Amino acid sequence: MIFFKSVSLALLIAMSTGTFSTVALAEVDEGRIAYGPVEALELIIYKIKLAVVAIDKGSTCEEVATLILEALHASKEINASDLVDKDRMQANTVLKVAKKHAKQCRLVVAKNELVQVVKMFEAMKIRDLKLQVIQ
Description:
Elements: H1 2-19, H2 22-25, H3 37-57, H4 61-74, H5 82-103, H6 107-134
Helix pairs in contact: 3-4, 3-6, 4-5, 5-6
């Protein structure tokens, strides 16, 4: 009887969690802005391009590093598949290296890395748009 109760309880829990989509029930904290995957990618690309423009205009190393850090924080807003998350982590690795170079005032190297990262995020955006069209 104890075995039957345990199995029936486990089945009941499994069925109840499977009937509701966690995305449909997900809530955003009050005062927090929620972005879709494409919007989040566009925001990140915009922030990275701001850092590139800052380098071109001759901003200080700390200002550029701060802009890169903002792009890193914005990349946490991407909520997508495991494939996109894997690509995001790879791009973040390059962003972290660019931030490190910006702090060391190696802005030319940082700019090259930022251009590379923009291409990586653009590829993610294109792939995500294609997936949305298929669905």
